[in-house]
Amino acid sequence: MNFHTRKWVKPGDLNPNQTLFGGSLLRWIDEEAVIYAIVQLENHHVVTKYISEINFIAAPRQGDIIELGIEATHFGKTSLTMRCEVRNKLTRQPVLAIDKLVFVNLDAQGNPAPHGKTEITYVRDRLQE
After folding, report:
1. pLDDT value at residue 71
2. What are all long-range contacts of 27-32, with beta carbons under 8 Å and residues at least 24 apart?
3. For 34-85, what is each residue's pLDDT tens digit?
4. Domain count across the chain
5. For labeling, which of 3, 46, 107, 124 is most exposed (least CB within 10 Å)?
6. DSSP character for 18?
7. Domain of 34: which CATH number?
8. CA angle 106, 112, 117 (to 5 degrees)
9. How many other C-beta atoms can be found within 10 angstroms of the C-beta atom of residue 84?
10. Residue 79: which H helix or E strand, with range?
11. What is the pLDDT of residue 119?
12. What is the Cα–Cα distance from 10 to 112, expressed in whole angstroms?
């Protein structure tokens, strides 16, 4: 799994326990995952369909740097399924795990649309074609 996105836990991200508010972390994950889906499916019209059980393992504190890892696990006809891990950048301690995030490819009218993708591709490879 590649960890590309890093976030610095700042005072505005904290809950009353002075740890990272789970809602902030989930917002960051959803944004990272939809960007991944948009790039893979080559379509800006992608929506979150499903997020499985979320396993909060540790609570980052102010000043921690965390990193988000997203990995594609399945290409459906109109969907892309991924998994996610979040860890502390410096200690590599796990923070969160999500086994399944499903995103659906849409047409211009907002209906599910086949995307024709079957495997992970990279922008650098598409540009060479």
Report:
1. 94
2. 28/68, 29/68, 29/84, 29/86, 29/96, 29/98, 29/101, 32/5, 32/68, 32/70, 32/84
3. 999 999 999 999 999 999 999 999 999 999 999 999 999 999 999 999 999 9
4. 1
5. 124
6. S
7. 3.10.129.10
8. 75
9. 23
10. strand 79-88
11. 85
12. 38
Q: At residue 118, what is the residue type?
A: T
pLDDT number for residue 61: 97
- Which residues pair with residue 94 across a beta bridge? 87
User: What percent of the chain has a predicted confidence (pLDDT) above 70?
Assistant: 95
Rounded CA separation 60/83 (Å):
20
Domain containing 103 equals 2-128
Residues 6 or more apart whose Cβ sits within 8 Å of residue 18: 61, 62
Does this model's pTM top 0.85? My answer is yes
What phi and psi values does residue 97 have, to the nearest 5 degrees? Answer: -140, 135
